[in-house]
Specification:
Helix content is 57%, strand content 2%. The chain has a three-stranded antiparallel β-sheet with strand order 1-2-3. Helix 20 runs parallel beside helix 23. The longest helix has 27 residues.
């Protein structure tokens, strides 16, 4: 399990197992050590695999802590305080990413620290303050340097905006503008950057009332997200990065995806998606709708920096050997167990990839570490009982293995501790034993509940209720551990028992164990427990929908089945009482865009039943995740006549600015549908929408609105807010949509309107 150990957080991936791994929250502990670390002597780098040489010093560099209002570029001089270990990590980044000369100078001038006594960690002090800490792998290093980036360069075209934060404010004027431009990007029409925009919309817990996940990602993750290619940075955000990043190897997101999809799955291969994901974030993209993307012909020059990745992976193994005795104390406390488990499991995998490397080191610990990791790798594929037996036997001759017990699966640990094996003393044993105590306590409870549940689901639910009555629902980790064990031991019985719980209890469990409930229960069963059914009262339905939407699992793919089931319930009920269901949509955070895509016929019929209510519901949609224009755009593809009526109603109400956004949202439809035929785009539906809009508004008004929309986006293109080809793509789509209309009179009329608007 690959591990990202970053103090400032991490991302969800499109797969439930989360290949990025666990996130370590350690700032509170490390902040207490910053002062002493600043004064500590720099440790020399003695790693035998330091193949990347530090850049020689040139002229002196300004201190990174100088005022950010002075926008002179850093001189190309490495910070003299940075050790060779740090220089090697930075030079690896320079081989991953296309930094400008100024970008290289900036990175080399930063104050970075090797966190000796921490597991392969580095720290980034940045320009003004401690920015964070993470494991020294490319993604983590780049993320923390991303936090240290701000304040180094002026914004192109806005040099008067300062990065200094005024007294009493939370952010500088320059950062405020960056955040505002991020929100503008999220609201823009689907274009060549739509795949990236969709990846951001899938960030866990993102909403217009919680924009922190989005801002955090685009402050620190832009380089990783784009593979360091300025060409993949949205146009409106390039002015913040153009002094730092070059164009990179990719011409477009289409080419980048085609390249990524061409890579193999074998982790040990030098040309694999796993290796690529070590320095770019394409693994987080949802590519399910891009299966028909044609393979790009010009990708042979884009290579995974396999040797650099291998060097950095071997360095992490070296750091393990070099600092192992300093690290052991971290696992004495119970709360460190999960971190230690993820960290060591990652090293088991790295050792498997780089067989023989640890054994080649002269470090006193290297040989015993290699032996331990070899043994742990040999357990793969064995049952928990077989693993426990082999570990028990090995501990007698290899007591050092006691430090690696966190690597073992829960069931193996339980069997090992339940045996009569005498466990050697070890620094990590305390945390492991404490964790196993929790396992034993919960395993006993799980066994009892399952035993009762096999005889009677209700009796099992009664026993489970007794446990929950004594449980603190704020102790989320304990509840998650219990329900993970519960499901793993007997999924069928666990499902029947949870379904026999009272609904109030299940609703209480939605916050602490949202993912576990979705794993244990079918989508339909979960909705039944939440009262999202065909015969639920209106108040119960609203409460259940709100709970389902506001307590997600943290992974959008895990949530999809329950949301789809909810859409089916609403679709069925809307046929008998549309006014009540419109009230549900208005009074809950109901994801209307998903409903339109999942149940297009029912959604369009429901909205068409009361145009005023539909306008109100669209107007209150989430402006970050699903702005009104995006919902209208979805309706164009499913119910173009209804979409036209809604846009006409907004126009009649004087909402001209909104109308211009709505009619421009289809700008790239022709280009996108040709590149990726599997996308839900129909130029025929676009044509029907425009024809109906001409009927609703009149030819003269539609001509004027299209002319205004073209002028608006020509101006935005000239300012760099959208791509320069936006107006041309827009006209091409309008003309293709008009040409798709079968009725010649309507087709000719619409073609004339477009021609006049373009003149």
């Amino acid at each position: 399990m690959a591990t990202l150990l970053a103090a400032c957080g991490g991302d969800a991936t499109p797969t439930p197992d989360g290949r990025i791994g666990q996130v370590l929250e350690r700032l509170e502990q490390l902040d207490n050590r910053v002062t002493s670390l600043e004064e500590a002597p720099i440790e020399p780098d003695n790693s035998p695999n330091s193949q990347i040489q530090a850049t020689p010093a040139a002229s002196s560099a300004p201190s990174p802590a100088t005022s950010s209002t002075t926008f002179s570029s850093p001189n190309p001089t490495p910070n003299p305080s940075n050790s060779l270990w740090i220089h090697n990590r930075l030079n690896a980044l320079m081989q991953f990413y296309d930094f400008t000369d100024e970008g290289v100078a900036l990175i080399q001038s930063l104050d970075l620290r090797q966190m000796r006594g921490e597991p392969g960690f580095f720290g980034s002090f940045g320009f003004k303050q401690w920015a964070g800490v993470g494991e020294a792998e490319p993604q983590g290093v780049m993320h923390e340097i991303g936090h240290s980036y701000w304040g180094s360069f002026p914004i192109s075209g806005f040099a008067d905006l300062t990065w200094d934060t005024p007294s009493g404010e939370d952010k500088s004027p320059a950062m405020e503008k960056y955040h505002a431009d991020i929100l503008l990007f999220m609201a823009q029409p689907p274009d060549d950057f739509e795949l990236y925009r969709q990846r951001l919309r899938n960030l866990p817990e993102l909403s217009e009332t919680n924009t922190e996940p989005l801002f955090h990602n685009l402050e620190a993750g832009m380089v990783y997200n784009t593979g360091g290619s300025l060409s993949l940075v949205p146009p409106i955000l390039r002015k913040y990065w153009d002094r730092f990043l070059g164009d990179g190897p990719f011409d477009s997101w289409y080419q980048a995806v085609s390249w990524f999809e061409s890579l193999g799955e074998d982790r040990k291969s030098g040309d694999s998606r796993f290796g690529a994901s070590k320095y770019l974030g394409f693994e987080h993209l949802d590519l399910r709708s891009y299966q028909t993307l044609a393979a790009a012909a010009d990708i042979s020059h884009i290579l995974v920096p396999a040797e650099v990745i291998a060097t950095e992976e071997r360095q992490r193994l070296f750091d393990l050997a070099d600092q192992f005795d300093l690290l052991l104390g971290d696992a004495q406390e119970e709360e460190q167990f999960q971190f230690w488990r993820g960290y060591l499991r990652d090293k088991v995998q790295l050792h498997d990839v780089h067989q023989g490397y640890l054994s080649s080191l002269e470090s006193p610990r290297a040989s015993s570490l290699a032996s331990a990791l070899d043994f742990l790798g040999s357990l793969n594929g064995l049952s928990p009982k077989q693993q426990a037996t082999q570990v028990s036997a090995a501990l007698a001759s290899q007591p050092f293995l006691v430090n690696f017990l966190p690597v073992l699966e829960n069931r193996t640990l339980l069997l090992l501790f339940a045996s009569e094996t005498r466990l050697p003393e070890g620094e990590t044993l305390q945390a492991t034993a404490s964790f196993v105590d929790r396992l034993e306590r919960f395993s006993g409870l799980v066994a009892g509940v399952l035993e009762s549940g096999r005889a009677s689901a209700q009796q099992g639910a009664n026993d489970l209720n007794r446990f929950l009555d004594d449980a603190d629902f704020e102790q989320e980790q304990d509840l998650r551990l219990f329900f993970d064990l519960f499901r793993e031991e007997d999924p069928d019985t666990a499902s029947r028992v949870v379904q026999a719980l009272d609904k109030v209890t299940v609703r209480r469990l939605m916050k602490p164990v949202a993912a576990q409930l979705r794993f244990i229960l079918s989508a339909e069963a979960l909705l039944e427990m939440l009262d999202v059914t065909g015969d639920s009262s209106l108040s119960d339905l609203k409460r259940g929908i709100t709970l389902l939407v506001e307590e997600p699992s943290g992974n959008f793919i895990i949530d999809e089945p329950s949301l789809s089931a909810m859409y089916r319930v609403i679709a069925t009920r809307s046929g008998s009482d549309s006014s009540e269901i419109l009230a549900v949509l208005k009074d809950t955070p109901f994801p209307l865009e998903g409903f339109i895509q999942g149940e297009p016929s029912a959604a369009s019929s429901l909205l068409a039943s009361d145009l005023g209510a539909a306008l109100e519901i669209l107007g209150q949609s989430d402006t970050v995740v699903s702005p009104p224009a995006r919902i209208v755009y979805r309706l164009i593809q499913e119910a173009p006549h209804l979409a036209a009526r809604l846009v006409a109603a907004w126009d009649e109400g004087g909402e001209r600015e909104l109308v211009l956004e709505y009619v421009a949202y289809l700008a790239y439809d022709k280009d996108r549908s040709e590149r990726v035929p599997s996308l839900s785009i129909s130029l025929q539906q676009d044509g029907r929408f425009l024809a109906e809009l001409a009927f609703q508004l009149g030819d003269a008004v539609l001509t004027e609105r299209l002319r205004e929309a073209l002028a608006l986006y020509r101006n935005r293109a000239s300012l760099g807010q959208v791509a320069g080809d936006f107006p041309a793509q827009y006209l091409a789509t309008l003309e293709a949509a008009a040409a798709s209309i079968s009725d010649s009179e309507t087709r000719n009329s619409l073609t004339r309107i477009i021609s006049e608007a373009a003149s």
